[in-house]
Amino acid sequence: MKHLRDHHPRPQLTREQWQDLSGPWAFAFDDQNVGLRQRWFESPQHFDRQILVPFPPESHASGLRETGFHPVVWYRRTFQVGPAERSGRLLLHFGAVDYRARVWLNGRLVAEHEGGHTPFTADLSDALTDDGEQVLVVRAEDDPRDLAQPRGKQDWLLEPHAIWYHRTTGIWQTVWLECVPWTYLQHLRWTPNLNRMELHLQAQLNDAPAEPCDLRVRLTLRGQFLAEQVVRVIGRQVACTLSLQHLPVNPERDDLLWSPRRPNLIDAELSLLQNGSLLDQVASYAGMRSVAVKGGRFLLNGLSYYQRLVLAQNYWPQSHLAAPDPQALEREVRLVKDLGFNGVRIHQKIEDPRFLYWCDTLGLLVWGEMPSAYVFTEQMCERLTREWLEFIRRDYSHPCVVAWVPLNESWGVPDLEGDSAQRAFARGLYQLTKAFDPTRPVIANDGWQFVGGEMIGVHDYATQGATLRERYGTHEAMERTLQYVQPYFRNLLTHGEARADEAMILSEFGGLSFAPGADQAWFGYGTVTSSEGLLERYRELVTAVLHSEVLMGFCYTQLTDTEQETNGLLTAERQPKLDIDVLRAINTRSSQSMPGDVLKDIHHDAQARHDSRLK
């Protein structure tokens, strides 16, 4: 049992009693899809291999490294249940299983879920046997050639090609057990209101209590009391608003607000009480911050903020989409910050919640992007929409998440210009996202063919800084580019669209491959053969972007080499190709569109040094 938030698979809703089921499981391929008919969930005889969970069977870390087409896989293991686990409910949580999962305990079906990147839970309480050993079986179905399935960068061909990678089949995030009471807190949703300096909570119980109970919420900041409130609970849903007793002026306001420079987090303790007796208790946290777009500017906490992002596939050579260990997620966030970026665009992946925890804790902006499908069908629309809403629900309360991107580069909607149904779907995703989360900006389709959103993301892999200046240096140049230039053979605006007050972000550029002694490397958007050349070209491109008077931020492609893509600032093993201090100096230079951003950072650095001396 563990209770370390930085290792907990769900850091924003933790209890002391949980058990990680990572480790060796029995395993079987079911290439002929006969396991259901033969009832493999009732017998161990077909499980002829062993796999290390949570690593996918295609990866080295799993112990298998089976990269061929295996559309159906099975997992089996046993675990013990003691008296403590029988005193209430026993929940089995899956961080992610790609793509369609069924779960049995002792031969009884306890859960089904479709969606390869979002979590689900099984209540095991009614399926437990009287003796101590329990048999858990999981079946995962992941058709590698189903292009209507949201799959992100997982290749549908046998071997990786172009910009797509080896697949991640089956379990690829933590599987864990949790002991809870019969009535328990199931979901929390935190919404800050900076104008009123209030923090709003919506809490959901697993079921309506048999008789009314009370929810006590206590907030602290770095151990200091902030607020407390007790509310009556009579159904599954309960809400309360906590006023934070801070003056809305500096320095108290800066001590409370969350930003990459000062990632203040408010700790929350929630207790569910009935007639004075404790039913359930969980720990959580929230961040007081606001994000918005106004007058073409991105605003963080009401002030203009320049986004310096890096594109991150968050893919590891030994473990693929799964992190090699929990510590790797922290290291990844620290590397991004060391390079001088203040944010990360997680590309075509819904990342492990522990990664977002470290972004919350260390201070890093995140764009949440949905893994794409690659054909437009009714089934694709249903699948992507359902998983997209699960994604928003899961990550809504993370202060680090500052933008939503449901579609990338028209993937899944390839005829966006000519097909009114595809345009309706893209615009519908934008409106649905705003209905589920009105607090964050949205880019309905990032890269080109803008169809709606508060920001316009442009992908332009021009290899010369002069070209970027010509296209994006001034407001006039930007308008000309939006109307007439096709950086990747696609219109930046769909027919009938025009720029209004959206913030302009160069959300993909660069992509420089480093190939010493080679004439060409695969895959990048320009190849250099020396570290000096890489540094010179990188400085040229970033400087050109920073000199734009209209861009409100950038996202450089990319953080690490990933399989055949050799265009990372770091190798696939996370080794820097250039001096990190030099890169940080380039990335943190003043921008023409927001020169005061550097002055603000200098102020925060001075304040941080002052706070350190006080400690």
Automatic annotation (TrEMBL):
In this protein, which residues make up the domain named Glycoside hydrolase family 2 immunoglobulin-like beta-sandwich? 183-289
Residue span, Glycoside hydrolase family 2 catalytic domain: 291-584
What's a single GO MF annotation on this record? hydrolase activity, hydrolyzing O-glycosyl compounds
Entry's Pfam families?
A: Glyco_hydro_2 (PF00703), Glyco_hydro_2_C (PF02836), Glyco_hydro_2_N (PF02837)
Biological process according to GO? carbohydrate metabolic process
Q: Which Gene3D superfamilies match?
A: Galactose-binding domain-like (2.60.120.260), Glycosidases (3.20.20.80)
Query: What region holds the Glycosyl hydrolases family 2 sugar binding domain?
Result: 19-139
State the family it belongs to: Belongs to the glycosyl hydrolase 2 family.
The protein's name in its UniProt record: Beta-galactosidase/beta-glucuronidase
Q: What is the species listed in this Swiss-Prot or TrEMBL entry? A: Deinococcus peraridilitoris (strain DSM 19664 / LMG 22246 / CIP 109416 / KR-200)
